[in-house]
C-alpha cells in the first residue's frame, strides 16, 4: 500500500466517525434545530475556506481552461443529479419507512461522493487533503444528526438507526480509497479535470445544501459569525502548513 493511499484511508476514517457520533447522539436525543444550524454554518465556512485557500489556487496555477470548464461542468451536473434524486425520494412519504429508505439511497450517493472528493483532494497535495477531510468531518456530523433524526421520526429503533448509519457512512471511506487509487497514475490534465470537478461539487455543497438548510431556521448573528469563524480558522491552518 502506498503512503498516499494509507494517508487517505486513515484520514477518511475521521469523517465516518464524526458522522456516526452525530447519528448516535441523535438516536438517543435528537438535537434542536438551532444547534444543527450552527454546525451547518461552521461546516459551510470551513469547506469554503479549503476551496478558496487550497483548491482554487492550484487549479488557477495550471492554466488549463478547457480542462477546468469540462471538470467544473461535470461537477455541477452530478450535484444537480443528486439533488434531483434526493427531492424525488423525499418529496412524498418521507415520513414513512419507504420514503426514508429512498432518501437513504440518495444520501448514500452523496456520502460516497464526499469520500471521492477526499481522494481527489489528496491528489492535489497532502495539506489540501487533510484540511478538506477535517472540513467534511464537520459537514458529515451535521448529516449524521439529520439522517438519524429522519429515521427516528419514521419509527426506526435505535439499534436499526446505528446499524444503518454505520453502513451508510462507511461509504465515505470506500469513496476516498477508490478516488485515490483511480488517480495514482493520472496525467496532469486528468488531475486538473478532477480537481475542477471537486471545486464545483464543494461550492455546490456550501451554497445549495449547507447554507440553504442552515437558513431554514431564523438567522442569528451568532450563526453568521460561526460561518466566518470556520473560514478564518481553516485560512490560518492553511497558512501554517
Protein model, in words:
The protein is built from 9 helices and no strands. The chain has helices at residues 3-28, 33-62, 65-90, 97-124, 126-153, 158-169, 171-182, 188-214, 221-240. Helix 2 (33-62) runs antiparallel to helix 5 (126-153), helix 3 runs parallel beside helix 8 and helix 5 packs antiparallel against helix 6 (158-169). It is globular. The model is unreliable at 92-99 (pLDDT under 50).
Number of helices, counting only DSSP H or I runs of 4 residues or more? 9
Tally the beta strands: 0
Report the radius of gyration as a whole number of Å: 17 Å
Shape field: globular
Low-confidence stretches: 92-99
Task: State the major sheet.
Answer: none
Separation, N- and C-terminal Cα atoms: 25 Å
In terms of DSSP E residues, the strand content is under 5%
Q: How much helical structure, as a percent, in the residues?
A: over 70%
> How would you spell out the order of helices and strands?
HHHHHHHHH
- Structural category: mainly alpha
Question: Average pLDDT value?
Answer: 86
Key attributes of the depicted protein:
241 residues, mainly alpha, 9 helices
SSE topology:
Blueprint (H helix, E strand, L loop, with lengths): L2 H26 L4 H30 L2 H26 L6 H28 L1 H28 L4 H12 L1 H12 L5 H27 L6 H20 L1
In short:
By secondary structure, the protein is mainly alpha-helical. 87% of the residues lie in helices and 0% in strands.
